[in-house]
């Protein structure tokens, strides 16, 4: 009986440490769009994407950076398919986007006033599902990015069942804008996201940044910096102890 209990404890621990393995590989697609073809421009998203890419290059050689006019709908989706198809079961995949957003999706370079020209969360979700990786992360620094938790602006009650092992870390609630300032290098969310992943969120000094540590750090920083106007959201089926970055 004692052996059986010990085995169960070990298996339980292995299940929740899927995203804590130090020997895993990381596959990243970082996208930023500042100058849009058809809609209003932004200032900082391309620098956001470049800084996210540089951070992950310290951990993996599998980083794709797409910015500006190259970040079309078709190119982004193809990059996600190609990059994430290379990941094995024990690896982590990360999609980072900075730019305009709408309820239920993100705006590529060639976005028009037609919502169908955007990349709906459902499309991103379907691509993520095809990857063998168990650990899947989406970072989105975009206005209304909390709306990524919905489909076409409508609540999706099946989201958690469909998105096992997907962590969505979104810069703002569904009805909020995501703040950028000409006096900053990065958007407010990306600023604290980078700080947290670089070690600022390591509250217990174990050199591992968990999901809960990162959320607590980023949420506090963004809320304070925005004077309580912007509130990051973390969503999905994941364990608080998932290790998102290890130093």
Short description:
This protein is of the alpha/beta class. The chain contains seven helices and 13 strands. The strands form four sheets. It has a six-stranded mixed sheet, with helices on both faces. A three-stranded antiparallel sheet has the order 4-5-6.
Walk me through the structure.
The chain is α/β, with parallel strands linked by helices and 247 residues long. 33% of the residues lie in helices and 21% in strands. It is built from 7 helices and 13 strands. Strands 2-1-3-7-10-12 form a 6-stranded mixed sheet, sandwiched between helices. The chain has a 3-stranded antiparallel sheet with strand order 4-5-6. Strands 8-9 form a two-stranded antiparallel ribbon. β1, α2 and β2 form a beta-alpha-beta unit. α3 packs parallel to α4 and α6 crosses α7. The longest helix is centred in the N-terminal third of the chain and has 15 residues. The termini are far apart. The relative contact order is 0.15. About 9% of the residues have low confidence.
Largest sheet: 6 strands, mixed
The largest sheet has its strands arranged as 2-1-3-7-10-12
Tell me, rounded to a whole number, the average pLDDT.
Answer: 87
Q: Which structural class do you get from the secondary structure elements?
A: alpha/beta
Percent strand: 15-25%
What is the terminal separation in angstroms? Answer: 39 Å
Q: In percent, how helical is the residue content?
A: 25-40%
- How many E strands? 13
